[in-house]
From TrEMBL, chains A, B:
Residues 23-33 have a biased composition (Gly residues). Keywords: DNA-binding. Pfam families: HTH_3. Residues 1-10 have a biased composition (Polar residues). Residues 1-37 are annotated as: Disordered. This is XRE family transcriptional regulator. InterPro entries: Cro/C1-type_HTH (IPR001387), Lambda_DNA-bd_dom_sf (IPR010982), RmlC-like_jellyroll (IPR014710), RmlC_Cupin_sf (IPR011051), TransReg_Diox_bact_type (IPR050807). It comes from the Bacteria. Residues 13-22 have a biased composition (Basic and acidic residues). Residues 46-100 form the HTH cro/C1-type domain.
DNA sequence: CGACGGCGTTCGTCAAGGCGAACAGTGGAC
DNA sequence: GTCCACTGTTCGCCTTGACGAACGCCGTCG
């Protein structure tokens, strides 16, 4: 790995040349585009999923058709698996690849009005901000929401993997998970996992928002 | 993998498996096929995302800190990238890693698309209106838009099948195809095909809208 | 007790992934 | 026209991932 640069053993992948760029990491909920190889996370996830399935390392290796030594090293955080290896493991564990690579990310991510990577336009009086890109295969339904203050609308957790997005149009509202609620002002954007309890509470009369629900 | 031993799967020597490319199959079931080699898909996704970002192969390779030869081979469908390589590419392209590895998931989930426009809420002071349901497999990117009146923003046709949605938050705007333009007021929603010339023209200062781009 | 079968780890070996250099095409500047 | 900067591709070389075998470690059976 990392032929030219950095340490040989280098966990840290070195090739973060692009690191410099780091444009606000648009991405919204993305996996945080952290620059280092997710070796440790892979290792942890691998072991986690394996124990969850109550399988032995040997058994998983056998099912995946890879050497157990390889799997052992992987779970130890050593090594840098190839795509085929990863794929085989995911099939063996019957999990989507993303489960290994996209660690649970229960954070609420806000893009304030005026924040976010603005996409340059040839016409200066037009601005577009990418709030979140869409993972392929995902389903996204778009709602318009009108809410009045007073009660607080609690939602029970939806199916795992559901993510919700809210862009406040007018008024004010408290939005987010019950543990991490944010006050939104017009133009603000927030996204949060919806497979945990979450809330939408209008703070002003005539509060309106655009609501996007994303089912994986 | 697909070494000598193995049980069942993966006879092909792996690498050229994908030659077929473009298996329409995938989609719904995700990786259910347990078939090998998301190679072709990686290759396609890689090139797709790269062109989407309007970057050259050389540039992406440079940002990722990998040899352009490697990237070239990857986009050609040859090779079996390591995790570090994949990760570096994802960082360089500023996309979540799952975007490359696609297939969503296994769970059979019911699609209740297009059911009922207005969704009743248990709390009367909360209203949600379903503007549009999402066709499975579609990709939707969500933008926030700020526009000032004056010029008219014309857009050239995008790729076939692209559909755009606009929900106006504040102000007024003319939106739609060049042949059928509509004036939007706050709360209004419009959708139109974007594979023909279309337009977004703010009519009031500080016009804001939520913009959803849908690639099939 | 020793033998067996399970586990996960470590050790050489070999092929394959990744690298850099050299390669062919393209478009613009002069 | 040549030169230059750039694209993406194809070639040897070499590091490194993946392999199988051997290892040490428990339980359990004979």
């Amino acid at each position: 790995m990392t032929r030219g640069d950095s340490t040989g053993a280098g966990q840290h992948s070195g090739r973060d040349t692009g690191r410099g760029t780091e444009k606000g990491a648009g991405q919204g909920t993305g996996q945080g585009a952290s620059g280092e190889a997710p070796l440790a996370e892979i290792a942890a996830a691998l072991r986690r999923e394996r124990t969850r399935a109550e399988l032995s390392l040997t058994e998983v290796a056998r099912r995946a058709g890879i050497a157990k030594s390889t799997l052992s090293q992987l779970e130890a955080g050593t090594g840098n698996p190839s795509l085929e290896t990863l794929w085989a493991l995911c099939v063996a564990l019957d999990i989507p690849i993303g489960r290994l690579l996209a660690p649970a990310r229960p954070s609420v991510h806000v893009v304030r009005a005026g924040e976010g990577a603005a996409i340059a336009s040839s016409q200066a009086d037009y601005q577009a901000t990418l709030l979140t890109a869409c993972p392929p295969g995902a389903r996204r339904d778009v709602f318009r929401i009108t809410a009045e203050p007073g009660h607080q609308r609690d939602s029970d957790p939806h199916m795992p993997g559901v993510v919700e997005h809210v862009i406040l149009s007018t008024g004010r509202a408290l939005v987010g998970t019950t543990e991490a609620t944010v006050e939104l002002h017009p133009g603000d954007y927030v996204t949060y996992p919806a497979d945990v309890p979450h809330v939408f509470q209008a703070l002003e009369p005539g509060t309106q928002a655009v609501f996007v629900s994303e089912h994986t």
